[in-house]
Each structure stands twice: as structure tokens, then as C-alpha cells.
Design brief:
The protein is mostly beta strands. It has one domain (14-221): Immunoglobulin-like, CATH 2.60.40.1190. The protein contains 1 helix and 12 strands, in the order E-H-E-E-E-E-E-E-E-E-E-E-E. It has one helix spanning 33-36; strands at residues 14-19, 41-43, 57-63, 67-75, 99-105, 113-119, 125-131, 148-154, 159-167, 181-190, 197-200, 216-221. Strands 1, 2, 3, 4, 5, 6, 7, 8, 9, 10, 11 and 12 form a 12-stranded mixed beta sheet that branches. A hairpin with a 7-residue loop joins strand 5 and strand 6 (113-119). It is globular, with a radius of gyration of 16 Å. The chain starts with 13 loop residues before the first strand and ends with a strand.
Length: 224
């Protein structure tokens, strides 16, 4: 598309988040000046690495001195939505419905510790503090990152869009700077149970998204 940044290499392990000088209101338009400044990566494979036709999900990222931004462009065939959406508080087990997700961690020594952020087409959200070594994984469900979301559904084109703004303080103790690298993976859950699609950026090669050994990297950069 004319004027849209070209995608990052599909073979690259790194997803580059491009610096922005100031924070902005969340925007779900990939053609806006803010998002056009970032080159996308694509989540389009199932958990075993096979391309899922028709579900190529574009993800862009920007960063500021305080926040990490993500925009998901999500084509769909059919929506599977929570019939009673709540956007004023988090929705635990949101992953049972259509969602876009990022798993992101700053600890390269203990890769089983990271954060999970999800947003639905209806702007529902949930954030989780993941520690895979704990016997009770619900311990991190009450964690609150303070992240923000926005979403919209374009039923004519059958694409839904979602944006996140995540405070850096929620994912790292370091001051964000160009060259900082995080472990990360990008996912979507789409469609009803009998026709469900698990869409990934870096395929976990297992049925579980929570396979940190298969994460890629998100790098903060100054320019695309």
C-alpha cells in the first residue's frame, strides 16, 4: 500500500519498535502518521509453523520514554465475542474469546517470568504476571499493569483493529533506551471452539502459547 512502511523480514527474530518523541492518544488507524512510522511484523502461522491462509495479522510498535505501543490489524472470517463485554475492569479468561496478545519479558536469565497482555475486538482487556514455575498460575491474575487499550471492528472489510499502550514500568526496571531488547511473542485466538484458529508470530511448536523457549525478540530502535 502506498505510503505504508514495508514489513520487517519474516526471517528476522527481532520485532523493531520505533521511537516516538511524545505519547499520543491510542489510535487504531494503521494509516495514521503515528503508525505509519513503524514497519510491521506478521503473525500468520499456527502453533506448528504452518501458514493459516486469510489470517495474516499485522503488528506495529512504537515506544516513548514512558510507554510501549502496539497496533494489531486482524482479518477474520467470523467473530467469537463475549456476549457481556466489560471494558471498565479486566476480564479474566478473556483468552476464551477472540483476542490479540503479546507475551513480553525483560529477564533473559529466567525466561519463565514474563508479562501477558490481551485485548479483544470489543476493547476488553486482561494483564497477567506469568511465572511458569509456580504451581498455581492464577497467582498473577490480580496483577495490574495500568495498560490501556482501544479497539474497533470493521465488519465491511472483516478486519478488527486493536491498540495497546503498556507502561514500561510494568515490564522492566530499566529506563527504556534504543538498543534495549525484550523477549516477546505475538498471538491471536480467533473463532469459535469448533473452528478456532491459534495464530502466532513465532510458532511455539507445541499446543501451548506459553513456550518461552520459542519467543522472538522486540528491540527498541530510533528509526525504522
Amino acid at each position: 500500500m502506498t505510503g505504508i512502511a514495508q514489513g520487517q523480514s519474516a526471517g528476522s527474530g527481532a520485532f523493531r519498535s520505533v521511537y516516538a518523541a511524545k505519547d499520543v492518544s491510542l489510535d487504531t488507524n494503521p494509516r495514521s502518521p503515528f503508525w505509519r512510522g513503524a514497519a510491521p511484523v506478521y503473525a500468520e502461522m499456527d502453533t506448528q509453523g504452518k501458514i493459516i491462509p486469510g489470517y495474516r495479522t499485522e503488528v506495529r510498535s512504537r515506544w516513548t520514554k514512558g510507554s510501549l505501543y502496539l497496533l494489531y490489524t486482524c482479518p477474520y472470517e467470523e467473530l467469537y465475542l463475549n456476549p457481556s463485554p466489560v471494558t471498565t475492569a479486566e476480564t479474566n479468561e478473556l483468552w476464551n474469546w477472540d483476542v490479540a496478545e503479546i507475551f513480553i519479558g525483560s529477564d533473559f536469565k529466567n525466561i519463565r517470568r514474563y508479562k501477558e497482555f490481551e485485548v479483544s475486538p470489543q476493547a476488553e482487556w486482561v494483564d497477567l504476571d506469568i511465572n511458569l514455575d509456580l504451581p498455581d498460575h492464577t497467582v498473577g491474575w490480580t496483577w495490574n499493569s495500568g495498560f490501556e487499550v482501544a479497539a474497533r471492528i470493521d465488519r465491511k472489510t472483516k478486519i478488527w483493529y486493536a491498540a495497546m499502550r503498556i507502561p514500561f514500568a510494568a515490564i522492566d526496571q530499566r529506563t527504556p533506551a534504543a538498543g534495549t531488547i525484550f523477549r516477546a511473542n505475538l498471538f491471536r485466538s480467533q473463532g469459535p471452539p469448533d473452528r478456532h484458529k491459534s495464530i502466532t508470530w513465532k510458532p511455539p511448536m507445541t499446543a501451548a502459547f506459553h513456550t518461552p523457549e520459542r519467543f522472538g525478540q522486540l528491540e527498541l530502535v530510533m528509526k525504522k
